[in-house]
Amino acid sequence: MRELLSIAREVANAIAEKKPVVALESTVIAHGLPRPQNLQTAQRLQSIILESGAVPATIGVLDGRLNVGLTDDHIQFLALENNIRKISTRDIPLAVAQGWNGATTVASTIWIAHRAGIKIFATGGIGGVHRGSLPDISADLPELARTPIIVVCSGAKIVLDLPATREWLETHAVTVVGYQCDELPAFYTRESGLPVDARVNTPAEVADIFRAQRDLGIESALLVTVPVPAKFEVPTEELQPILATALEDAEWNEITGSALTPFLLSQMAERSGGATLRANIALLENNARVAAEIAREVL
Ligand code: PSU
Ligand code: MN
To answer: Is 285 left (phi over 0), alpha (psi -120 to 50) or beta?
Structure first.
């Protein structure tokens, strides 16, 4: 298995020496954020992790190689090229066999990161149960249920059915903690009205829970949810009408499958005058920093 992974030297060394490493996904770069903010954010997330005392490992697929620790050139390629594929776990064998170039989602990134020996991953929002009549459930959820890794995020994207997503996580034994908060964050907003399983206040507390999970042999992820920094929060009253219109547009244009999330995110950024984009970037940066701080405690 490990022969199929191309692990960057600094990442491999850090893993071998049990130094803190934080994995990052690349779908958010290729499909989640517009240009030029996507490339800037990808580079910024890596610097934040380095400045916080951990080694960043952005994951993506180039010529069918599962790369753990993308170079600057790789990141530029995924950020600037058109027609970059969105690779979920089901696509990994296709990508390997057929030499694809593509960006990895939360699902495929944690699948790869865990097999590379990385214990913590940071992103913006996980996928979940979509709204609407067709049962569309992100592969992020089942992957969280079978991958023992810490996932730092700001909850699930607001475009989803959050109560259904919360129930799914509970059913499948994914432990959900609130990082310095009591409610599950709702991506652009700090509160959702949905509970977390426990509140934690420090990186050391997260490390204790992860250690207990590992000692118990529990195979699911530990979801650490961190609210968007307060000054970037988009008020619910402002967000609701924008979201409703974006969902209607998606339905009207029959946008489904892997195209749905990127469509909804870009529609909302446009209709909010960039407020949702600024919130998205702020929470990604904050989550990268929190993940690095946790990584330093999980050794
Ligand atoms: N969160 C963001 N932006 C994104 C995504 C998440 O803030 O672009 C991506 C992640 O890569 C996640 C994916 O895994 O969307 C979920 O897509 P789908 O619903 O098609 O599984
Ligand atoms: Mn889907």
So the answer is: alpha
d(CA 46, CA 143): 24
Q: Which of 122, 199, 124 is nearest to 154 (CA)?
A: 124
pTM score over 0.85: yes
C-alpha 205 – ligand 2 centre gap (Å): 33
For the chain, what is the mean pLDDT? 95
Residues 6+ apart with CB under 8 A from 231: none
What the block records as the tokens of 187 is: 């991506």
Parallel/antiparallel/unpaired status of strands 102-104 and 55-62 = antiparallel
Determine if ligand 1 sits within 6 Å of the CB of residue 105. yes
SS3 (DSSP) at 298:
coil
pLDDT digits (tens, 9 = 90+) for 243-298: 999 999 998 999 988 888 889 999 999 999 999 999 999 999 999 999 999 999 99
3-class SS of residue 66 = strand
Distance of CA 242 to the CA centre of its chain: 23
| 275: phi then psi, degrees, rounded to nearest 5 | -65, -40
Structure letter (DSSP) for residue 32: I
Give me ligand 2 centre to Cα 261, in Å.
8
